[in-house]
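help with these tokens:
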Amino acid sequence: MSDQISNTTVAQGAMQMFLEEYCAAGIQALLFDTDDEVMSLHIDMHELLEFNHELAMLLLESPSKFLPLFNIACLAAQRSLKQQTTVSDSICTVKEDAQVRVTHLPNHPTLQRTRIPGSEDVGRLLSISGTVIRTGLVKMMETHRVYSCTKCRGVFSVNAEVEQYNYIPKPVRCLVPGPDFCNSTAFVPADSAEDSQRCVDYQEIKIQEQVGRLTLGTIPRAIVVVLERDLVDKAKSGDSVTVTGVVTCRWRPVVAGERPDIAVVIRANSISVLSDQASQIAITEELREEFRAFWAARAGTPMRGRDEIVASMCPQVYGLFYIKLAVLLVLISGVARSDESGLRVRGEAHMLLVGDPGTAKSQFLKYAAKLVPRSVLTTGIGSTSAGLTVTAVKDGPEWQLEAGALVLADRGLCCIDEFGNIREAEKSTILEAMEQQSISVAKAGIVCKLNARCSVLAAMNPKGKYDVHSSLAVNTALSTPLLSRFDLVLVLLDTHDEQWDAHVSSFLLGSRDGEEAGQGSDGEQDVWEFDQLQAYLAFVKTAFQPETTPASEQVLTRYYQLQRQRDTLNAARTTIRLLESLIRLAQAHARLMFRNKVLLADAVIAVVLMESTMLSA
């Protein structure tokens, strides 16, 4: 027993040395925070491994024992640092409840998981990446209860058992430490000054495995994550998160005649929200140099370089150059703008593909969903408003919100196939998500607003045979408010052209015989690999924030004015959203061309794509 105490003491001393050496800035932030906003000290596991490999391994193997020791060491480090300062106590205060949060576990399959852990992982410290699909209400959890013995007048506390849903069992005998045990069974709850410190914030969320990392046909599993103290409300439904915590089991009290219900949960130690797509794709410096060299070699003929990238998009489809370009521009999108008053103009572009059967609409949707790391692919048949937006689910005595397709695709892409088969009542629910980029919920007494900052790529068949003499609203049977929200509406018609049919058939037969399927009509062009194209799209979205030039602004503004003055005015397309769509497409083309300025050529391409939409309208 003495050896164990000495080991614990030595470990605690080593922890304090580590915190004072590597986390001095974090401890100072704790001490000088007067608003109690900073209540956590984040430590990097790589730094702990560098400092003391044995201590780091003990923490990974027995986190339930050594994480509380880290909290005690953090308290000691705060007091030690405060003694070295001459600042008054009103400015520099020791935070008694400060928690140590472990981040950046080593990149090893046993420590960083993409699949839900099982019963064999109970007691381990690990990180898991997933998507939040359900968030519970924030509650108060009693951490311990203080009792006073009526015989010896001693005071002792009983901790809540996390394994039994934070149940605090009543003690069977007096637990006052000391040489004389009174073994009394009569005690009452103590009225002490600790009453206000017994409870902490508590929330349960459910995270699901990321669908993009699973093999085809695998049903994603989910697990409950317990958040405590300052971790509550860190994540919302639809967020992509990385949770580091301890895997534990918990069960309800055993009832005679019923099977015990034992579940595996994660008690979170730290949580980080991955907001952008670039954080999910590793973009190395070599890749950046490769992209710069690619455009430097084509400085004289930039459009040929763009055509090589477009030819790499969906190589299994022959031709359809403008459709591929339009899909790429929707995936890249423009720059979101927000002013001081909080008004936000979306940067995400939306596109609708209307076409006859067999015109590769679903192929574009599937390929686009693979290109974007955070994407949701759904079909309109059977999709309800709750499935697209958010669902209210009753879990026990309380209601919880479960994210739908548009919320899960936040900061990503939502692909909706068979868009025309969505019921009329359900189509109206996505109007707010497409323009305001948020979803307002008022269900089961829960009123809130969730983010849905995603691009919508939809595909549908026309109602019957497409009539080129009728308007787009008649052919699609979609309402004007819904059509005006799509930046591009492109029509794919199955024309009976003998020469085109011969090209397509030879392309399909050639690709099946093992020839290069990505050559298309431009056989001389080099096709990019899928991973290279995916990294390029993620890089240009974060590296470039294009600004318009006077020449491009003049072209876009003049085209918008001409469209408003046309005799054949189409109310579904010629709204103020038309000008915003033109700006978004021009900015996306500038990003695709690897530059920070929207030039005249970008504006012309945006007008050409919009004109094809206007012709179909």
About this structure: The first strand starts at residue 40 and ends at 44. DSSP finds 20 helices and 25 strands in the chain. Residues 2-22 form the longest helix (21 residues).
